[in-house]
Amino acid sequence: MSANSPWWLSEGEPQDRSQSLGFDLGGLAAGAQQVLEWARDSLLTTHQGHVNPADYPQCLMCRAVQLFQQSPQGQVPTEEHDFHWIELDPPRG
Amino acid sequence: MELLLVSGTGGSGVSSVATGLARGLRERGLATAELSSAVAAPVAGSQVWAEATQTFGVWLRSLGTASLGPEELLGLAGLNELLTGVMAAEATGDPSIDAVIWDMGSLREAGRTLQLLDSVPVLLDRLLTGSVADALSAPNPAEMVAAWYRLVTHLAQAREVLTRSRAVLVGGDQDGDRLQAGLGMLRLFDSTPTAVVINRAATPKSALRDADSLGLPAFAVGSRQGRLKTGWLARQLTGLVELVEQLPPVSAPAWTVSARDGGFRLTFPLRAGAQVRVGRRGDALLLVCDGHQRHFELPPVLKRCLIQGGGMRGSELLLGFSPDPRVWREEA
After folding, report:
1. Cβ–Cβ under 8 Å, residues B240 and B195
2. A9 — phi, psi (to 5°)?
3. Is A29 on the interface with B (CB under 8 A)?
4. Mind telling me how many Å the CA of A24 is from chain B's nearest CA?
5. Which end of chain A has the least Cβ crowding within 10 Å, N or C?
């Protein structure tokens, strides 16, 4: 192990997150939560009465069902990622 | 106030403390719900049970195999914990309930339950969106998608509520090391350790001094001869009840992302001395702390980054990320 701390372990004040990232992470999280709540409140309850998905193009669930039906042989495109372990530095402090 | 998990070393009186705490809160006028992983959840009549059997039934039929009837799945390992998690999420979202106390049993049992609630939604997602999905020829895709979506939503809600939970650790006089390990496990799953109760302490003052190393408010309950009475225990826990009553809600997980040196640093609080491993697959990390493992979906900004390295500093896991040049455009 080198005597110098790598930057991810080094001390010191981090830069201001909101300025550096160009957006507000807190706002982003709140937005995501709102989307989740909207999905929970509206999607699940309204979709239940939709018998024919083609009749409800505004319903996200019906669109998902249609996509599933239209894809060749019912296949869902996926992107496979390999799993790998990260080599960690010895514990400090 | 939100969800409060109670767990501790085996045989230290976790359930008694959970019951005493609930009674103390009720005596202060708070509508308090109590859940226990050790008590069988009302499986057969629950909505999530119907969704689970429907999802797996359709999925198995899609693969051309015989479905499983609900009666064949009863007693499946982990099922009770999953359903209790869903019930905890429902109770926490109920506006008529002020506090939800979940007696999770021993730290070993709590770790198993939290890992299950973390892993099962990921597994369900893989089953229907991964390469296995290619083999499906669902006779009724709408039925499958709808049942799957409802089931995953229920479990994801349970997992999400846990990330805003607080935890009370319970142990005996000599349980400092095991409680430290529990601290790391709870933080791994984003629960916020809030207090420690040293139960049946032979010498309460000395027990409290020993609990100092945990860095949490500590409360000692002495031994009592004869049958334990909940009212007596509730009085012993008055300080803890007052603390719990005054706590603000947990608004965000304890992990943070900060920008530094042209990259980003993920800081994840665990515990000093924890045995930690970290793996990555695509947009998710596998975090392993003292044998417990959690799937951690990276925040959006880190999904577009490569991991440069990391390690433990004190009680925190620090991971360094740098922008992936393949997906970040050069600044003008």
Report:
1. yes
2. -105, -5
3. yes
4. 11
5. N
**Domains assigned to chain B:** 1-253 (3.40.50.300), 256-323 (2.60.40.790)
3-state helix, strand, coil in chain A (%, to 5): 50, 10, 40
Crossing angle between the packed helical segments B238-246 and B14-27, to the nearest 10 degrees:
70
**pTM over 0.80, yes/no:** no
CB B103 within 8 A of CB B38: yes
A83: nearest CB among B150, B273, B279: B279
CB-closest option in A48, A53, A86 to B280: A86
Closest CA to B302 of A25, A9, A82: A25
Copy the structure tokens of residue B179.
């409680």
Mapped onto helix, strand or coil, the DSSP state of residue B293 is strand
Alpha-carbon dihedral of residues B239, B18, B223, B178, nearest 10 degrees?
-100
Instruction: Tell me, rounded to whole angstroms, the distance of Cα A66 from its chain centroid.
Output: 23
Number of CB atoms found within 10 A of residue B50's CB: 15
The domains of chain A are located at: 51-75
Structure tokens at A15: 């830069």
- State how far the alpha carbon of B178 is from the alpha carbons of B175, B186, B204, B211, B268, in Å: 5, 12, 19, 11, 20
Question: Closest partner residue to A91 among B129, B142, B312, by Cβ?
Answer: B312
Partners of residue B281 in chain A, C-beta under 8 Å: 81-84
ipTM surpassing 0.90: no
- B301 in contact with A, Cβ within 8 Å: yes
Rounded CA-CA distance B166/B173 in Å is 23
Tell me the nearest-neighbour CA distance from A16 into chain B, angstroms.
7
Nearest to A89 among B136, B252, B310 (CB): B310
d(CA B321, CA B325): 12
Q: What is residue A41's DSSP assignment?
A: I
Q: How far apart are CA B87 and CA B240, in angstroms?
A: 25
Q: What is the pLDDT along chain B (332 residues), one digit of tens a residue?
A: 589 999 999 999 999 999 999 999 999 999 999 999 887 766 667 777 777 777 777 667 766 777 777 677 777 778 888 888 988 998 999 999 999 999 999 999 999 999 999 998 888 777 766 545 555 555 555 666 677 777 788 888 888 899 999 999 999 888 889 999 999 999 999 999 999 999 988 887 887 887 888 899 999 988 776 677 888 889 999 999 999 999 888 988 899 999 988 899 999 999 999 999 999 999 999 999 999 999 999 999 999 999 999 999 999 999 999 999 888 765 54
